[in-house]
């Protein structure tokens, strides 16, 4: 699994970090980022839910 976050699109709503706190966090400006070492999703089934929950579609999840 490969996760990418379009920071130009992210509005810092935080839904991703709420849905999958083991994978997503928010940086000092409130924008989403993937926790270190979790770029592959860490097997967290909530990653796709987090992508769905993002109100602006900033998260792309693809199978590698
Ligand atoms: S849910 Fe979307 S808009 Fe909100 S912080 Fe996460 S990536 Fe950004």
Automatic annotation (TrEMBL):
Start and end residues of each 4Fe-4S ferredoxin-type domain: 1-29
Cofactor: [3Fe-4S] cluster
Gene Ontology MF annotations: 3 iron, 4 sulfur cluster binding; electron transfer activity; iron ion binding
Pfam families: Fer4_15
Keyword S-adenosyl-L-methionine in annotation: no
Keywords: 3Fe-4S, Electron transport, Iron, Iron-sulfur, Metal-binding, Transport
Domain of life: Bacteria
Alphabetical list of InterPro entries matching this protein: 3Fe4S_ferredoxin, 4Fe4S_Fe-S-bd, Fe-S_cluster_ET
Coiled-coil portions: none
Role, per record: Ferredoxins are iron-sulfur proteins that transfer electrons in a wide variety of metabolic reactions.
PANTHER family the record matches: FERREDOXIN
Designated name of the protein: Ferredoxin
């Amino acid at each position: 699994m490969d996760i990418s976050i379009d920071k130009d699109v992210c509005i810092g709503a935080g839904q991703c970090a709420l849905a999958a706190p083991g994978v997503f966090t928010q940086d000092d400006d409130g924008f989403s980022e993937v926790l270190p070492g979790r770029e592959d999703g860490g097997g967290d089934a909530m990653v796709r839910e987090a992508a769905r929950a993002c109100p602006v579609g900033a998260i792309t999840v693809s199978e590698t």
